[in-house]
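Standup notes
- HV: blocked on the assembly model, inputs below
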Amino acid sequence: MPDAQRRERLLRVLKTVTTQPLPADDEESLFESGLLDSFALPDLVSALEQEFSIKVPDRDLNPRKFDSISRIDTYLQDRAS
Amino acid sequence: MPAFLHGFGMHVPERVVTNAEMALRVERTAEWIEGACGIRERRWAAVKASVADLAIASAHDCLARTGVAASSLGLIIVASGSARPGFPGPAAEVAVRLGLESTPAIDLPMASAGSLFGMAMAAQMAEHFGDVLVIGAEKMSAVIESAVLDPNTAILFGDGAGAVLVSARPGPWEILDAVLHSDGQYRDALAFDWSAPLRMDGLSVILQAARKLPSAINEVLTRQKMAVGDVTQFLLHQANQNLLVRVAKSLGVPAERVYSNVARYGNTSSASMLIAAAEWSQANPAPGPVVFSAFGAGFHWGALLARSV
């Protein structure tokens, strides 16, 4: 999947789990910015699984992997490779 | 050899700590507290009350409801994550205050999932020991008062105790199966040892709990060739209303199928699931399968399936 397409789908998923505007900086912490809280995070993981047809295993349930757009994109890229 | 649940008991202290009172302690508003966790009030025990005091009260309630004399108990299991450190734990005191001088009494120093693990162990041990009284008892107010806590954590907890009688004798609910799991790599994500404030990595705890509770429930149901839709009631550790709602959503069941009293008692850790069961059972529930499930510090989690006989 092209990087731009994956990122576009990721941003679409993020918009379904938060009402706040997404950060302009892909490195910005989604938790520290208040965009994601502890209850939105499980929703995000489930939405990613559905959108990208993947199963996030328990060993990957580390909040740091989902802390920024950049980190989530890297995770999705790793899963696709 | 099958095992059966004969009945439940509970005790919560009289003192109600409202969100308005808690708001003054944590410099938040009552509305913020309720929005964050769905809790409106919790019960706190007297300063001098011990975990054993709470446990005894729930034991008496359970024995009265089931019509079983304390003298006929073959084993006592007391789960608590907030009992004072050192030895002996509260189980020995509970036993002797029930008038038992040689009946084995086991401590499970486990928060949150302790009573679920105790029930699963009792189901295996009842054939050998006879009637087993499982108690979850917590004085979480002592944990809160022991140090300056993060407001996000301090608002959650309450005191109380729940109990259940497990026996090989036929009773109202037959235990069909149980699954238990532990993963110690997350042991620092939720921890307390009286030397420092309770530590809780909320992101990690909620993420794991939101996934592992439905997973354990589905695991035990699948093993018994049953579906989520077959279950009439889910009795879960009352951690946080937002978590209970998410578990219901993950399971694909209406939120009311997951029993909730967290608004009135807060998170009473290992006591909460049995307090919920005691309230649920007293309301003459519809017959059918029921699933108990809990997740907590360790991480420890699991599910137990029973059906009305």
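- HV (later): unblocked. Residues 5 and 11 of chain A are 10 Å apart (CA to CA). The longest helix of chain A spans residues 3-17.
- Next: hand off to the docking folks.
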